[in-house]
Here is the input.
Amino acid sequence: MEELKEVLAEKIRETEKVIQNYLPEEAGQQKRIMEAMNYSIHAGGKRLRPLLMMETCRLFGGDLREVKPFMAALEMIHTSSLIHDDLPCMDNDEYRRGKKSTWAAFGEAMGVLAGDALLVEAFAAAAKSFLYTANPERAGRAIGILAEKTGIYGMIGGQVVDVERTNQPLSEEQIDFIYRLKTGALLEAAMMIGAVLAGAEDKDVKRVSQIALNVGLAFQIQDDILDITSSQEVLGKPVGSDEKNQKTTYATLKGLEAARAQVKALSDEAVREIRALPGTNVFLEKLILMLITREK
Here is the structure.
C-alpha cells in the first residue's frame, strides 16, 4: 500500500505540472478572474480524471504529448462544475477542500465568471492537442467526446435533473440517471479520450466507457456514504449537505449497507472489465479501487 501511495503521489505531481502549464497568467485589467480561476484549480483535489485519462492512454500505448492538453482541459471543466455547485443558488457551500469556496473567497459574481471562464479555457487547452498529434482525426473525435460528456447529454444534463428535483423524493432510477451523467460522464470522457487518442479499437473504447460509468456510479455512492459517516476535518468540505438540502441519495434511499454492497459490486465489475482489455496497467486497476473505496 505504501508503495502504491508513493507511485500515486509521483503521478499526481506529474499531473499537476501538466495542469499548471495551461493555467492563465494573472495579469491585465481582468487579473481578478485569473486569480479566481487559479485559486480554484490550486485548491487541490485527487486529479482523478486527468490521472485516469493518462493511465488509459498508457494502457493502449499512446503518446502522452497528445493527451496532456486534454488532461488540463478536463480538470478545468471539473473545477468549473465544482465552482458552480458551491454557489448560493445551488448547494450554498462556503468551503471546498478545506478552503473557502470560490464564491465565498471572491464574491458570487466572480464565482460565476470563474466557472464560465474555466469551461471556455478548457476547450482552448484541448485544441492544442492538434499541435502534437500525427492523427488529427483522433484529436477531433476527442474534442467531440469532451463536449458531449460535459453538456446537456452529460454532466450538465445530470445537474439539470438534480436541480429540478431539489427537495423532492427521487426514485432509484432517477438517482442512477443523475449519477451516471453528473459524475460518471466526465469519468467516461477521461477514459474514452485516453483510449481514443491512443488509437484503441472501437470495441475497446466502448468497454472503457462502461468501465468508467461503473466507476463513476461507485464513486458517487461512496461520496454519499462519506457525507453521512465522515467529518469536515477529514473530507475538507461540509458533511451532511445532502440532509441539509433534503437530497435523496443512494445511501439515504437504500441504506448504508446496501450502498456499500453496491460500491463493491460495481468496483468488482470494473476490475474484471479492465483485465479483459488489451495491454496491462496494474496501477490503473489499483487506482480505480483506491478511489472507489476511499475514506476521504
The radius of gyration is 18 Å.
